[in-house]
Specification:
There is one protein chain. Helix 1 packs across helix 3, helix 2 packs across helix 5 and helix 2 packs parallel to helix 6. Helix content is about 50%, strand content about 15%. It is built from 7 helices and 7 strands; from the N terminus they run H-E-H-E-E-H-E-E-E-E-H-H-H-H.
Amino acid sequence: GLCLKMRIFHMHMESDRSAAVRDYVLAVVKLGSRGGVFRYKTRIHKTLFVLAQEFEELSWLRNDFVPGHFGPWSYEIEFEVEYLAHLGLLEDRVDRQDVIDGLKHTGYIYYYRLTRAGRVFAGRAVKELSPKIKKRMKELLNLSLWELIGYVYVRYPECASRSVYADDELLPARRQPTTQRPSAGANTE
């Protein structure tokens, strides 16, 4: 009866949402790849986090982010990245690395490469982006990893509450006053 119809409706909505997340992940990887390689899983999460905050048409993604060790993190995005690899659209490689771009780093870094099929789907995903979102996505992807993390921490300090870098002097953007928020509260987490 009604319960089954609701469950089917929910499953249908869930699959639409999942497909949309996958498309945004593919677009980020395509636009952020350099020499065919996309670096840093964190960059996928932070880019989509900022876009979800700044664009009303992506507001459906906002509540999916939780404060993680490197700022806002989405389990849904994490799942879809792994699912894209499972589908054969993304190849991933993991390295242990202590320093990234001259700054200390704790843990592993992920490299992604679109497969031949992945490039086709990613190309479609980029074509579907609104010009405003595409332009902003490119701006965010042109930042270094640390500039992007620093921007997120300064602009959205509530998302840095569990971050291992929240008070790190190595994030210069963290120490710069920002026009959006008072700088006094920036380091009190």
